[in-house]
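Consider the following input, taken from an annotated entry for XRE-type DNA-binding protein (Variovorax paradoxus).
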Amino acid sequence: MAKKFADLRAKMKPDAQAHSNTKVLEMLAEMPLFELRQARSLSRKMLAEVLHVQQPSIAKLERRTDMYLSTLRSHIKAMGGELEVVARFPGGTVKITNFAEIDDVEGIARI
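Applying the prediction step yields:
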């Protein structure tokens, strides 16, 4: 018979529970687009409707390893998020800000 995870977790030592919590947070901080969509409880069909594209386009986009930042930004925005480009160096982290959004109506960069 299957055991509940909560029961197994309760039997873990405190340091093992802490390690498990850290791993969970790491896994939630990094995930492919399809997992992010699923975690946000969105179907491909729902996302396709928001982006005004066909459902297969969403599946294709989620498998891509290379895409325009504007494409990724619109995908993230359709899921209710905001895309930030961050560079990490040994001495610190820098948010890259020169990727201004393009206003679809006027064609003018918004700041």
